[in-house]
Amino acid sequence: MTSLPILSANVLFAYSAYFVGTASPGPSNLAIMSIASTDGRKAAFAFAAGVVCGSCFWAMLAALGLSAALLAFSGAMVGLKIFGGCYLLWLAFKSGRAALQPRAARTQAAGTHLPLRRIYARGLLLHLTNPKAILVWISVVALASPANGGAPHMLTIVAGCLAIGMLVFGSYAALFSTPLARRVYLSIRRWLDGGLAIVFGLAGLKLLTSRA
């Protein structure tokens, strides 16, 4: 009986921590902002769906306890780190090149829409190639899990966090695809693309050089 308030407090704290971490500016949010402003709402939602599905993959690993086995297999984590770091550096190169393009050239390039399934795959790959995402989920699950918590409780925690993620990423996609946001984006396009290049570049270098 006395464990319920503590459990509720732990769960709410975990949800709050996940919301702050998800809503704060990062590679995924900045990418959604850029895609929403250039390619529209459908493309932004497709990219956001890929990010959420990637997060769901790491969440299920953490909730089912498979994360410990993955972390123990150091070779897989090292390979994932290298691949993820190189992919982030490639995204940094693309964002930097876009920042140097004239406005007319960038607008014309944005008009050549990719298929939604390719945009979705990019969002999925962005999240799957970040091994630190699983560390975040391990922390959330451990924080909200009681000593006698079972699989249903874990799935409840995961479902709540994924709902928060869908709300946050969907809000970014909807907000930054409005006409006003697109006009603002065009006025600060180079600064935003340059910021993306810096964020992706630092994240990629950090992955490649980290020992953990």
TrEMBL record:
It is a multi-pass membrane protein. GO terms for molecular function: amino acid transmembrane transporter activity. It is found in: Cell membrane. Keywords: Cell membrane, Membrane, Transmembrane, Transmembrane helix. One of its GO terms (cellular component) is plasma membrane. The chain crosses the membrane at residues 12-32, 44-64, 70-93, 124-145, 157-179. Pfam families: LysE. InterPro entries: LeuE-type. It comes from the Bacteria. This is LysE family translocator. It comes from Paraburkholderia hospita.
